[in-house]
Amino acid sequence: MDFNILVILLSLIGLITFAYRGFSVIMMAPIMAILAATLTGLDLMPSYTELFMGKAVTYIKSYFPVFMLGAIFGKVMEETGLARGLASAIINGLGKEPTKAVISIVLAGSILTYGGVLMFVVVFAVYPFAAALFKEANYPKHLIPACIALGAFTATMDCLPGTPQIQNIIPTTYFGTNLYAGPLAGIIGAVIIYGVGGFFIIHRLKSCIAKGEGYGNHTLNEPVLDPNAKLFSWQVACLPLLTVLVVNFAVTEFVTWNPDILVPFQHMKGVPLVAAKVQNVVSIWALIIALVCGIIVALIAGWREIKTVDSMSKILNAGAIGSLLAIMNTASEVGYGNVISQLPGFAEVAGFLMSIHIGGTPLVSEAVSVTVLAGITGSASGGMAIALELMSQDWLAWAQSIGMGPEILHRVASMASGGLDTLPHNGAIITLLAVCGLTHKESYKDIFVITVLKTFTVFVIIFIYSVTGLH
């Protein structure tokens, strides 16, 4: 094997190994990147300050407002009890019959994530009511994580058009699209995932019941619900979510931005990193406006639980501070990708990926690249950001040469990011199992089926596109 390619592989293996063992990506990504750079002849300090940090800062500039506002919105929904109120209404309202129990948990997670609540917050909001339902019905607890994962980590994360999750936002910058790109492809993908995934979990639940398997003897993180607690009605709880969706759609579809609005800023001295054109940032602007409106509505709707300005400041501060780790993790992975892209061996790696001509389109090349990198990094947003940073312009040029629009590139990249990212070392999976008080051994095999299903679905969408020209 060529030495330059070996260096890249060893660097990736090192990053995976350290991340899996609990070392922060913020620390290890630059170390692994600089190690690879110096072994292939690049100077150490410029590789760090100019290549790594230059691209990491660009990423933070583009997406920090979305990370911060999304985290604040989620924190307000969590701390006011609005998220719990909606989850309770759905889960308790549909009933205890096995099929309805699974559907209720999936539906609660889906509505919350599609409304803009971060996936981590959804786990905390949905789990207590899911556990109480399963315990009362004597259903096996180890299936709860798969139900939550199907609802919160799949279609509403990256398939359905308009979802405000970061996995649907990142491609807009690279392809000049908006959050509604490739709507038909996304909807078909969502139907496949929900249909097959729901069938699998319901079948598993009924099989466990038939074998006489009950809730089990669990003592870790068992929820204690106050039967006298006054929860918000689902109508009130939905208001902030609807606000985000409606405002985002309205600004995206009905607001026309002046194409020259950035020109004065591009010519200002000392103003770096201004976008080249408005099209690259309007989707982010729309979501910023929508999230601000959603936060305001959530604060008003949940004021009875906040009561004081001091309480409000603590909630807002907690959300803002909590966003820092998420943005820095992903920015570090983007910086790492930028260093790797400048190494001598990367041209051969890129050439191999671009040589995947199945169907005569860049979609398989894109899907394989994003899926593999998401699996390696254990992060949908991180893996996709690396892939798009390295290859998006080549895929876009390829697509334009065959008359393919960028919308399908957006949807395939987004969907591909949400497949192998949920391998055992993924942070969301580790958090989900910890919150549920379960181990990988107890619950991961069912989550893995959902992971394989998501990975499979994006290639089904590519096949359908190649046959029908689906958009």
Biggest pleated-sheet summary: none
The tally of helices reads: 21
Helix content: over 70%
User: Low-confidence parts, pLDDT < 50 over ≥5 residues?
Assistant: none
- DSSP summary, beta strand count: 0
Name the helix and strand elements from N-terminus to C-terminus, one letter apiece. Answer: HHHHHHHHHHHHHHHHHHHHH
Strand content: under 5%
SS-based class:
mainly alpha
Q: Tell me the overall shape.
A: globular
Write down the Rg: 22 Å
Distance between the termini: 40 Å
Averaging pLDDT over every residue, what do you get?
Answer: 87
Protein described:
Helix content is 74%, strand content 0%. The chain has helices at residues 3-20, 25-39, 44-79, 82-94, 98-114, 119-137, 144-152, 155-158, 166-175, 183-210, 234-254, 263-266, 282-301, 303-306, 309-341, 346-354, 363-377, 380-401, 406-417, 427-436, 440-468. α3 (44-79) packs parallel to α13 (282-301), α10 (183-210) packs parallel to α19 (406-417) and α17 (363-377) packs antiparallel against α18 (380-401). The protein has 471 residues and is mainly alpha-helical. The chain has 21 helices and no strands. The model has no long low-confidence stretch (mean pLDDT 87). It is globular. InterPro entries: Glcn_transporter. Keywords: Membrane, Transmembrane, Transmembrane helix. One of its GO terms (cellular component) is plasma membrane. GO terms for molecular function: gluconate transmembrane transporter activity. The chain crosses the membrane at residues 52-74, 101-130, 180-202, 231-251, 282-303, 315-331, 447-467.
